[in-house]
Design goal:
This protein has about 100 residues and is mainly α. The protein contains one helix and three strands, in the order E-E-E-H. A three-stranded antiparallel beta sheet has the order 1-2-3, with no helix packed on it. Strand 2 and strand 3 (about 20-25) form a beta hairpin.
Length: about 100
């Protein structure tokens, strides 16, 4: 590791090594930096969770809409099957062939 030079009139001590220069923090500065980093992390996590909750809410809305559409389609299908069976009975009463050869 490089040597530490302290220049009180210039501010914080600096560690000089090979080709790099690192700032050395006092314990109080380190605690403050960690506190700020943790606060920033909590903010990012809170924002991420909020975005996820918004996405879930949007998806639930789409799911409800799709479920309503499916219910309508199922009801229409049942109605059409009923009407089809009535028409088939009418054709049978009139002696019509229900499976005519189309080809």
């Amino acid at each position: 590791m490089g040597e530490i030079r302290s220049f009180p009139h210039l501010g914080d001590p600096i560690v000089y090594g090979a080709d790099e220069c690192w700032k050395v923090y006092t314990p109080e500065q380190r605690k403050e930096n960690l506190r700020q980093a943790q606060a920033a992390f909590r903010d990012r996590r809170t924002e991420y969770i909020k975005r996820l909750e918004d996405t879930v809410q949007l998806c639930n809305g789409k799911l409800e809409s799709l479920q309503q559409t499916l219910d309508k389609v199922v009801d229409e299908r049942l109605t059409l099957r009923y009407k089809n069976s009535l028409l088939e009975r009418i054709l049978v009463e009139f002696g019509e062939d229900l499976n005519p050869s189309i080809f």
